[in-house]
């Protein structure tokens, strides 16, 4: 998940140090890449950076080259990639390459080896680079190499990549958008040089062209900016917004190379639109702050749950609602689009907005750490106001449903199978007995169901974000005395107990295999106690599900057949035992091998220990009765005095005990 940021506006000092100071926050939020708007020298100080001049210099307004290197290094120590926005389409008048060959009227001279005299497309500001010229190609290959080699950045977002064409479309935008093989060749010439020198470099294109050309670029390894601003904004406001095109599969890509986004630096803020123009019906108002933040959480769930890379614009996680056109003097104008905008860090004290941020952090965590969120097997049903996303995997499945309407709706979630599903954001289990049953969803209601229970994330906006979090339970195995808040990471011991009953134990002993140890049948032997019960201890995170099976041996084939009544499906036609780790150390009930119950004793319950026999008598297993101590074994239960025959003396012995109260 990429976090797009403008250093100028990120915080009040407007420097690289501001980003360094907030790395704890960005790491907490789960962003594993930041995309920084242009940092090479540009004209003026308060620009977005898309008016560049000196290509090998860090813009001094943001800080020194050393400070940029520090930022990159500190990001890398946290597992955060750094992507830099770069502008190869054009340059501005103080660029030395312009001034070396410039006519008296300020235009590029006809013999300028790097620039076109007249731009080849209708959206080229400044001086238009001639990427058909070998001198230009050589120059830009050196620029691309420089920032990777000098600053160890991880990739580029290539601004206005569609402008690298040398096919003259004049002022015809439609013609400019058409498939252009020469432009594709230019881009791959640069890409192959970069990838040859620096394998694995991310190359993101702000292409915004026709899908046939973007598909060819994506299938060749480029990542494509996937603008979905209007669609998500219309949906979150309670109107009609079809988000299906936010899926790389729905665009026909072979690989997940679509960087879908609902907001970028260049678009109106989604929260502003929602709080200003949101729909309302029958007492429900999407514009009200708490409601708006809940709807933004739902919109981000439906953005981030679609497999593939995603991007968010800075502060979108806090529901930033200052219009991009706000002149900050009570007026709104296109001319104010590039103006400075205030940082909203005080919103971290706003419960509604902090709750939104925490929800997005939890979604980012799922995307990074749960395998099904990277699946290639999924579907997006996002055309109506009731939206659904289904993610399928061999070990995990997910169903996301949401009502973007401002009135209640009924919808079928589309669970792939019956059984127990878990609402990730409440932790509550849901028993699905019919795949065709509809659910009633209130306006703005949404649920993310998983078939694997996970720790319930913290989305409480009343509890501040604390960097120093950990396990705060002294009883847990990983108690952190320095933690200021619990993050659901506590590990607890659970004792598994097994009674082998009268089964002959394999020479390799009794073992257990499960999700807690990689399902290796010989890695976890169980120890036999003095009470003839086998035990072992499992350590796992609170709220997580542990699946396991007992083995009478140490290889597959000696594992028990777990009954369906006490098992969960293993996806292979059978069942595993399972439990959800409670917030305490505990022992599970004793079970018999391949059974849901305890083993049945050979004799009547408790009689094997003599508990059902009176004083001076013992249990005779052969006769199935209590006999006097020292009585030789008899196969005749009616011989009460043990003399070998059933006679009057036995009857008299029985009558003599008539009326006695037996304990």
Give a structural overview.
By secondary structure, the protein is of the alpha/beta class. The protein has 3 domains: 2-381, Alpha-Beta Barrel (TIM Barrel), CATH 3.20.20.80; 485-592, Immunoglobulins (Immunoglobulin-like, Sandwich); 607-656, no CATH class. It contains 14 helices and 33 strands. The strands form 9 sheets. It has an 8-stranded parallel beta barrel with strand order 1-2-3-6-7-8-9-12. A 6-stranded antiparallel beta sheet has the order 13-14-15-20-17-18, with helices on one face. Helix 6 runs parallel beside helix 8, helix 10 (229-237) crosses helix 12 and helix 12 (289-304) runs parallel beside helix 13.
Main sheet attributes: strand count, strand direction, barrel closure: 8 strands, parallel, barrel
Number of domains: 3
Estimate what percentage of residues fall within beta strands: 15-25%
Separation, N- and C-terminal Cα atoms:
71 Å
Overall body shape: elongated
Q: Mind telling me which CATH architecture of the largest domain this is?
A: Alpha-Beta Barrel
